[in-house]
Amino acid sequence: MTCPKCGSTVAPDSNFCPHCGERLREHTGDTTGVLKLLSSDMLEDLTEEQVRAVEALPQGSALLVAVRGQDRGARYLLDSDSVGAGRTPASDIFLDDITVSRHHCVFERAGGQFTVTDQGSLNGTYVNRRLTTGPVVLRAGDEVQIGKFRLVFYPSPHGLG
Question: How big is the chain by its Cα radius of gyration, in Å?
């Protein structure tokens, strides 16, 4: 099956294109709706390409967008149950700066939500400029600081469950 809007190949049972978010099927009377988890003001600092990336996120995933640091504008996909961030090249999210510990923090997906947990890093992990002391549940628009990197959390508009 091909998306009529962007031409991407999509699975035959898809309701939305995972690349551009285009609806692929007509409404069938199903009362299940899509919750908008992001308000337009949360997306105002993003480029058009980044907004499209957030809107196209499949259910159960999220995106971190770097708003500060040498990788400003970089996007990091959270699409598995555990995503590690750190300075070691083996990290799922590789942040190459001395202010980041080798195994700095872990993003975990469970129960329809994402949390971030510091892994004993030297400089700590901050959510909305507050030092974390344990797992912190992330909400749309939360800013996660890892060393001098600031990453904004954008969950899928199709939900995390």
Answer: 17
